[in-house]
Amino acid sequence: MKRKLFTFVPLLCGVALAMGLTACGGGTGDDSSSSEEVVTSLTTSDADETTHTVTYYDGDEALHTEEVEDGDTAPEWDPTTTVTDKTFLGWYGEPTLTHVYDFTLPVTDDLSIFGSFVSYQEDTRHWALAGSGGTELLKTSNWGKVFTDEHYMVNESTETENIFTIEINLFVNDQFQFTNPVYDESSDSYSWGHQRGGGYLVEPTRDGVEYFQVGGGLGADNYTANITALVEGRYKFTLTTYPAGDFQKDDSPETYDNRNYYDTLEWVRVGDSTEVQAEMTTTFYLKGAYITDWGDLVNDHTKMVLSDGVHTLNNVYLKAEDEFMFASIFTETATGEESVGNVYIRGSNLTEESKALVSGESNIKVNEDGYYNFSYDEATELLTVVKNDDYVPPVASYYVDGNFGGRSWGIDESLKLVQDETDPEVYSLSSPITVSAADEEMGIQYYNAELSSPYVDFFGSSYVKTADDAYDLTKNNIVFKTPGTYNVSINTYSHIITITAA
Fold first, then answer.
1. Phi, psi of 328, deg, nearest 5
2. Which pTM was predicted?
3. Distance of alpha carbon 384 from the chain centroid
4. Which residues contact 205 (CB under 8 A, 6 or more apart)?
5. Are 470 and 502 in contact (CB under 8 A)?
6. CA–CA dist 122, 208 (Å, integer)
7. 109: buried, middle or exposed (CB in 10 Å: 19+, 13-18, 0-12)?
8. Residue 452 to residue 344: CA distance in whole angstroms
9. Of 113, 225, 473, 502, which has the highest C-beta tally within 10 A?
10. Which residues of 214-251 are buried (b: 16+ CB within 10 A; e: fewer)?
């Protein structure tokens, strides 16, 4: 920074005398004559002028500098004649290229402006829609469990640009993003590759109308956050990618954790939706860190019951510091077809009274151990939490039951699960069970012969967190597909059943 300083100029004694001013000394012994102080002079012709240096960067390389008067704006310098081997995408206020630089701001100090430059590299990925909602594509997507030809974007790339497009119908509150699906042949299932979520969306608000909301779901940041439709319609999305600018968040080796500061997701509303929205009902279920290991376990211990617009779930035992929320399932009224929902009950839905028991804006955290009742009002979107200190659960024991190995259903003391010595919440069989043939079934009974209703509870396929090629979870009981010997255990806090080959 170069500053023009005020100049202090003292009057020389000889000059002062020549001008008839009082002498520089104390006089000639005349005490009555007072000595005047010499008045100094400042040069002020350019005293108010200050300049600042503006430097334009490509990464760490300084490309150009400009001198700007204090209070003026920085010129929007065009780098394309200097940088000819890269695409220029704009100027930013910091090296992370997070915020576009505002060239209307006055310059009051030295300034660095960072260019967004990226080299061309062909994108060989196949981008596809993943989401949940009322339209057919989102219902069948089921958050990426299914990818058909209709879910994939059309590759319209040129020799210098990577361009992918898709036209989709959207209803209000539909949620989605785009991913590079990775198919696992051994499990016949897809996982998500690189994600392009809400952080890449250009102009979610346009002409004063908020068409899309960025956020929701379980995305860790905006780059992987869901996009929520706020205006019904048929939309065309254009994803432009620059693979040369890809990087892994926090140097993670995971492929899904890819980020890119250059990619953009642009959109245009081409008209009204070509579909009619079906009537849907919503079911909520508990999902948490310890209580379900963040698994989607929809069963009698996690599923809310709907009555007169109010969803309730009672007598849930939760440990202090456990975190949870309620996820949702959509069911089409006419057909009974189910799909993964995109509505969540979080800490932001808590009533003020409930915040004395639980806390959090996103996930809800429990303050102390105990049994809790939950009530969610659809009309007000408020969740009421009550601690039920009067509830006393029935006491019983856990037994493996089923028709495996030539046996019939019924309680057998040899199949009673035993508490683990190192983890008291886990109960396991002392020895594995034998499955003789495919289609044999099993479950876990919570049983006490001394009670008038000895079969207190039953845990079947909806209590198994991870699917396995060895068994089928589509029915109420756990159905084995592969004969063999299996170890069985249950976590009595989460009620998650674990089955492993012996």
1. -140, 160
2. 0.69
3. 25
4. 211
5. no
6. 36
7. exposed
8. 39
9. 225
10. bebbebeeebbbbbbbbebbbbebbbbbbbbbbeeeee
- What contacts 277, CB < 8 A, 6 or more positions away? 134, 135, 171, 232
174/267 Cα distance (integer angstroms): 16
What the block records as the tokens of 380 is 């007000």
Task: Determine phi and psi for 419, rounding to 5 degrees.
Answer: -65, 135
Give dist(CA 23, CA 36) in Å, integer: 9
Q: What's phi and psi for 394, nearest 5 deg?
A: -65, 150
Cβ burial of 19 (10 Å; 0-12, 13-18, 19+) is exposed
